[in-house]
Amino acid sequence: MSDETSDRRTGLRSTLASVGSERGRFAIGNLLSTNTETTGMTANSGSEAAETTAAERTTDVGADSGAEMSAADRPLGSPQVDNAIIESRDLDVFYGDTQALQGINMDIPEKQVTALIGPSGCGKSTFLRSINRMNDLIDVARVEGELHFHGKNIYDEDVDPVALRRKIGMVFQKPNPFPKSIFDNVAYGLRVQGKDDDIEEQVYTALERAALLDEVEDQLDESGLDLSGGQQQRLCIARAIATDPEVILMDEPASALDPVATSKIEDLVEELAQEYTVAIVTHNMQQAARISDKTAVFLTGGNLVEFDDTNRIFENPESDRVEDYITGKFG
Amino acid sequence: MSSERMDLSRNGNDVGTLGDRVARYAFFSCAFVTVLTTIAIILVLINGAVGFFRQATLVELLGDAVSAGSVDGAADAIGEGLAAQVTVTEFLFGTDWSPLIEPTSYGVLPLVWGTLVVTVGSALIAVPVGTLTAIYLSEYADERVRRTLKPILEILAGIPTIVYGFFALSFITPIIQFFFPQTGTFNATSAAIVVGIMIIPMISSLSEDAMSAVPDSLRNAAYGLGATKLEVSTQVVLPASLSGILAAYVLGLSRAIGETMAVALAMGMLPQITTNPLEEMQTMTAYMVQVGISDVSIGSIQYQSLFAVGLTLFAMTFAMNVLSMWVRSRYREEYQ
Q1: E strand or H helix at A251
Q2: Which of A88, A77, A111 is closest to A309 using CA atoms?
Q3: How much is the pLDDT for A59?
Q4: B285-302 pLDDT, tens per residue?
Q5: Chain A CB within 8 Å of residue B218 CB
Q6: Where do the domains of chain B lie?
Q7: Average pLDDT over every residue of A319-324
């Protein structure tokens, strides 16, 4: 193992910096092992045997093979996927002195729906906000670790969060249309991003895709705030997809809505996953089970406990705590 | 135990209902004092203004009518008292104001002009600077900077206006004279600048309050769409807080209209309509100071003119306040 690689590891994982070289090499081996065992290591990632053998390998890490994952914070399940568009590696987020996320390691697959579930305060929204660097807007927030988007660490110095957010759109918990007309709400992102050729057509398309056009076609000049809660949220979705991002982050988009509006949003999310990558935070376990392909379970303290196919999480989770949570024993 | 009758009546319980009632009336009477004062001020202004336009004030008319003893005498007294002294037309549209020097003339427009020059000039300074300060404080400054800057701004607001007047005379005017040597000691530009500085804290503080009231969810929505900080500030926060900002402008400007000591000192006492802002002019308020400290006798037409000018000034600031309220309701955005 070259010193150069070793340096990269120690930079990546600050805890390694303080340990001896012997220990460091061992841990680095663990990181590398995940590349060759993306599927094999699901059952017992903590297994000593698997790691010691992996430690002897010196596989080169290519950009396309995905970023490596440390063993220490590796969640149960299969947190690495083949078609990952986003890879979180040892991501820590602090709010002042409070650590909101503890070494999150997981992938988000392209053009699928990934649900983030867990009890309140478990850090799932924080994780979502760290994907498009919305946490930058909070003065006291600090991020450590890496989060790769198309293989590029978005927390690198040279990344412009504004450019990033143009690729990764967001829908918030409470519908938050601008106090502008319905048309201007959808057009806003297009104008900001300079995509304002054929703006009318683009607005119509976005409203259509958000399943809102039929309801508002005659009132595009009226304020977005005059719509019902469910319509407002679909307006926000239309606004987010109008600029054609690659990823859409949704932070409990249906939690403030009635059941009918909720089911419309759910249908929409499934539909959107054909063209977009969707990461959705939800409190509603049935919702996660219904609409997502992958599910990440965060439990109190900012830990990602398990990540796997949604079916597995809901039918046969590895962690007892996850099972307890899903079956409603706590949380 | 449980069958014992419970006494919930007022009389049987000493729960301070009397205190409650007394407190209610005490609070109400305090609130009523302000209403009474406002009404009293308006009545005094109107009474004095009548004395300016007619031979006698309303109170004098009443006194004359009562002391006349007969109905005819009373009618005569009222008729005499109501004989015109200065016509309203002359007052409102006359372009010459020289109440103290013969031949006297009472056209208020030069004073209104002086007031307008100061107001517009100060707005040219205070509106941009105040708004940009507010945007900086609300959107850009971090907590530490905000906590330092806001008190400094408030100190600026607490400086006595006469000090601003000296500041204008001894600091701003010399600077203007350096660039434009023909500038007089008293000039409108200096006054407008200093009044502008004076109302910056008011405009920035009220505007900042309005911007801070815009919920973060709107900012997040814009950031989430890839807007820059400048775009969020100017395209989302500014329009959403427009009502509060416009109201801040109007209140700041009505302060400029009513500003007295600084303009009396810096702008001078020469009522004239001129387009050269480097010349001496006189505002309505400065005229009132001039008459207030001069030796005109109570009851003279010069003395009564104070009330006419005061009433005009009151009408202007009142109109500004109504405008501010209208703007507030007209442009109010319901966020959520």
Answers
A1: strand A247-251
A2: A77
A3: 39
A4: 999 999 988 888 888 888
A5: yes
A6: 17-85, 105-330
A7: 88
A177 and B215 within 8 Å at the Cβ level: the answer is: no
Q: pLDDT band for position A21 (50/70/90)? A: very low
Pick from A139, A169, A180: CB nearest B225: A169
Q: Which of B140, B214, B220, B225 to mutate to test the interface with A (most CBs of A within 10 A)?
A: B225
pLDDT tens sequence across A97-110: 999 999 899 999 99
CA dihedral of A212, A218, A223, A227, whole degrees rounded to 10: -40
∠ CA A259-A262-A266, rounded to 5°? 135
Please name each of the domains of chain A with its CATH number: 1-65 (no CATH), 110-122+158-326 (3.40.50.300)
Contacts 24+ apart (CB under 8 A), A211-219: A211/A264, A211/A267, A211/A268, A211/A271, A212/A238, A216/A182, A219/A182
Query: Of the candidates A179, A181, A176, A185, which has an alpha carbon nearest to the alpha carbon of residue A206?
Result: A185
Note whether A210 and A269 are within 8 A (CB): no
Q: What is the pLDDT of residue A45?
A: 40
- What is the nearest CA distance from B222 to chain A, expressed in angstroms? 8
Q: What is the pLDDT of residue B78?
A: 83
Contacts of B251 (CB under 8 A, 6+ apart): B202, B206, B320, B321, B324
Q: How far apart are CA A281 and CA A255, in angstroms?
A: 10
Helix axes A229-242, A259-272, angle to 10 degrees: 10
Task: Report whether pLDDT(A15) > 50.
Answer: no
Q: Which of A128, A124, A121 is nearest to A300 (CA)?
A: A121
In this prediction, residues B13-19 reach a mean pLDDT of: 67
Pick the residue of A128, A192, A228 with the most B CBs within 10 A to test the interface with B by mutation: A192
Half-sphere exposure of B159 (CA within 13 A, CB side): 21
Superfamily covering domain B105-330:
MetI-like (1.10.3720.10)
ipTM of this predicted complex?
Answer: 0.75
Query: And the tokens for B232?
Result: 């969020």
**B189-222 pLDDT, tens digit each:** 999 999 999 999 999 999 999 999 999 999 999 9
CA distances, B84 to each of A155, A269, B89, B94, B300 (Å): 81, 80, 11, 16, 15
CA dist B323 and B321 (Å) reads: 5
Selecting from A176, A192, A240 the residue whose C-beta is nearest the C-beta of B227 gives A192
Cα nearest neighbour of A245 on chain B: B225
Q: Which of A176, A192, A193 sits opposite B218 (nearest CB)?
A: A176
Residue at A149: amino acid letter: F
Please report where in the chains the tokens 């107001």 appear, as a residue: B119
Q: Which of residues 130-149 of B touch A (CB under 8 A)?
A: 142-143
* Pairing of the two strands A303-309 and B97-98: unpaired
User: Does the pLDDT at position B79 exceed 50?
Assistant: yes
CA distance A27 to A32: 9
Whether residue B76 is predicted with pLDDT greater than 80 in this model: the reply is yes
pLDDT digits 0-9 by tens, A66-87: 556 666 677 887 788 888 899 9
